[in-house]
User: Which sequence fits this backbone?
C-alpha cells in the first residue's frame, strides 16, 4: 500500500506538472514598437526689449512714448544683447558767478510715466539685456563722456560727472545674478570709458536677463531682488563739477554720455561635416 500510495502521489505530481506547462507558455506575450519624437527649435530673440521700472523689475513697464518720458532715451533697435534705456542727466539751472573753487550741482531724479498711467520718481539709471543663446553671458557695462558740455562754441572746460550709490536690480531669480554692486566712477572730457558693472567672469546663466543699475533710489528703504538695501538716494548720487577760473556764457550746455555693453562673441559653431557647403 505504501508503494501504491507513493506511486499514486508520483502519478498525480506528473499529471499536475504536465497540465500547468501549456498555461505558462500561453502567458508569454509579444510586443512591437515604433518610436516617435518630440521636437522644439530655439532661436535667439532679436526683438526690442521693453523699458522697465528699475526698482520693480518685472512689474509695470515704462511707457515708450517719448513725450511722456523725456527723461530717458529708449533704444529703438532690438537684439540678443543691448543697452535698452539710459536716463538723461538733468541738472538744475545754475547762476553764473565768481567762485575761487569748483562749483557743483546734483542731478535731478528721473520721472517715469508707466504704461498704467502712474508716475514714479527714480534715480538716474541704465537698463540692459542679455538674452544670447548658450552659456556665455560674460560682459562689462561701461560709460564715457563722449562730448563735453557745450553751448555752440562755448564749453564747460574740464567739467566732470560723478556717479555713486549704484544699485543693481534684475528681473531674473536671485540665483542667476551676482550680488556685486556697480562701480562708482567719474566721467571726464577725455572720453575714457569707465567700468560700471563687471560680469566678465560669469559662468552659466549669470548675467542672463534684463538688468538695471540705478544710481541712488527713490527711498532709503528700497531693496533690490537680492533684498539688499539702498546705499543712497537719487538726489545725492550724480554730481556735476565745474572747475573755477573760466568764463561761462549763458545758455543751455549739453554733453553726450555713451553707455556700452562690451563682450566677446562666442566662437561660431563648427559646420556639420555631413552638411555640404553652399
Assistant:
Amino acid at each position: 500500500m505504501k508503494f501504491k500510495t507513493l506511486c499514486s502521489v508520483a502519478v498525480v505530481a506528473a499529471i499536475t506538472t504536465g497540465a500547468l506547462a501549456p498555461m505558462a507558455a500561453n502567458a508569454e506575450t509579444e510586443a512591437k514598437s515604433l518610436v516617435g519624437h518630440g521636437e522644439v527649435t530655439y532661436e535667439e530673440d532679436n526683438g526690442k526689449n521693453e523699458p522697465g521700472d528699475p526698482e520693480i523689475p518685472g512689474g509695470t513697464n515704462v511707457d515708450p512714448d517719448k513725450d511722456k518720458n523725456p527723461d530717458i532715451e529708449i533704444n529703438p533697435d532690438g537684439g540678443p544683447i543691448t543697452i535698452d534705456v539710459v536716463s538723461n542727466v538733468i541738472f538744475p539751472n545754475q547762476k553764473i558767478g565768481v567762485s575761487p573753487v569748483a562749483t557743483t550741482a546734483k542731478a535731478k531724479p528721473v520721472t517715469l510715466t508707466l504704461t498704467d498711467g502712474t508716475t514714479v520718481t527714480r534715480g538716474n539709471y541704465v537698463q540692459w539685456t542679455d538674452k544670447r543663446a548658450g552659456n556665455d553671458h560674460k560682459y562689462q557695462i561701461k560709460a564715457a563722456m563722449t562730448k563735453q558740455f557745450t553751448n555752440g562754441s562755448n564749453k564747460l572746460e574740464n567739467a566732470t560727472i560723478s556717479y555713486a550709490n549704484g544699485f543693481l536690480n534684475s528681473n531674473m531669480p536671485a540665483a542667476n545674478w551676482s550680488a556685486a554692486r556697480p562701480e562708482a566712477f567719474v566721467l571726464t572730457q577725455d572720453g575714457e570709458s569707465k567700468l560700471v558693472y563687471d560680469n566678465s567672469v560669469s559662468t552659466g546663466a549669470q548675467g542672463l536677463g534684463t538688468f538695471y543699475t540705478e544710481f541712488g533710489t527713490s527711498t532709503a528703504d528700497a531693496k533690490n531682488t537680492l533684498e539688499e538695501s539702498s546705499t543712497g538716494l537719487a538726489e545725492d548720487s550724480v554730481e556735476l563739477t565745474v572747475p573755477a577760473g573760466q568764463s561761462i556764457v549763458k545758455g543751455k550746455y549739453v554733453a553726450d554720455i555713451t553707455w556700452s555693453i562690451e563682450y566677446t562673441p562666442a566662437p561660431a559653431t563648427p559646420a556639420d561635416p555631413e552638411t555640404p557647403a553652399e
Observations:
- Residues 74 and 85 are 5 Å apart (CA to CA).
- Helices lie at 2-27.
- The radius of gyration is 34 Å.
- Residues 1-20 have pLDDT under 50 and may be disordered.
